[in-house]
Amino acid sequence: MTDETRGSPAGLAGDGPEDEPPVVVKIGGAEAVDPAGAVDDVADLVADRAVVVVHGGSTVVDETLERLDIEPEYVESASGVTGRFTDAATMEAFSMAMAGKLNTELTAQFRSAGVDAVGLSGIDGGLLAGPRKSAVRVVDDGKRKIRRGDHSGRIESVNADLLDGLLADGYTPVVSPPTAGAEGDGAVTPVNADADRAAAAVAGALGADLVLLTDVAGVYADPDDPDTLIGSAATPDELAAVEDAAEGFMGKKVMAATEALSDGAERVVVADASASDPVAAALDGAGTTIERSALGDGADRDPAEGDGGETA
Fold it and tell me: What pLDDT is recorded for position 18?
């Protein structure tokens, strides 16, 4: 993420107690994640801190594809990340589900809770932008291949000025993919991008705390045993333990966490969306907290491939 993407979060943070940074809350889109608790919690939090909400929507995207009789295709990237291949028809369903349905419904929920919410897709105002990846490297039956016709992209810039302006005026942005994919001829195409990594990009650009709400309590040392919750990671060795423990969808969240911290986020918490007051609890130490110090001297990590795909 380039310096040009950074806004002026210090001015916003100064309005809250003890000059606290903004909070980016990512609400997962899996079926098991009920946003109601987070909505009420954000409604309380906005009185004291600037908040940006980013949401996923994997379940509703899958349901939309099913209604349109489109069979989803999942591919494995060269780096071992599995995600949805987004052809033109899938991209149309994705936009319908994310920007058309989910973003509108979630914005309405926040407004019903008294939050002055503004719904935005990553395309609006060039909020989330980067080059479209029309061809992706995939692994099929152990062989590396090139798949063309993809509509995915890597977020390389965030319009932090747009977010800063809305936050300064008392609005709470509710953000979702698709993002603005730049074509070689200068045109802009809606593209799929992972919602965790979108939230990470926003948090990095704003110098914010990032709360990734999901359907488990955090990262478990033993993925099958909730009693092995890893409470925090503040050193490179502790971060390595978290990365080793993270499997499947949790691996993407830990990847997003390291990207957020590398780009300027204050800290990242992976926490349970179903907990009582989930955002406040996460900020108070519930879940798995990863501090910026955990990156050590590796703050400039190269992001892995696999930017398209799941939006949970």
Answer: 52
Helix (H, G, I), strand (E, B) or coil at 288: strand
Confidence band of 179 (pLDDT split at 50, 70, 90): very high
The arithmetic mean of pLDDT across residues 132-154, rounded, is 86
Distance between CA atoms of residues 70 and 63, nearest Å = 10
- Dist. CA 71–CA 81, nearest whole Å: 20
Q: What share of the chain is helix, strand, coil (3-state, %, to 5)?
A: 40, 30, 35
195-206 and 160-168 helices, crossing angle to 10°: 70
- Contacts for 237 with CB less than 8 Å, ≥ 6 apart: none
Query: What's the sign of the alpha-carbon dihedral 46, 49, 54, 57?
Result: negative
CATH superfamily, with its number, for domain 20-295:
Acetylglutamate kinase-like (3.40.1160.10)
Q: Give residue 81's identity as a one-letter amino acid code.
A: V
Query: What are the extents of the domains in the chain?
Result: 20-295
pTM above 0.90, yes or no: no
Estimate the crossing angle of helix 103-112 against helix 36-45, to 10 degrees: 50
Give the confidence band of 1 by pLDDT, cuts at 50, 70, 90. low
Contact criterion met (CB below 8 Å) for 307 and 197: yes
Q: Please say whether the beta carbons of 8 and 159 come within 8 A.
A: no
d(CA 17, CA 104): 31
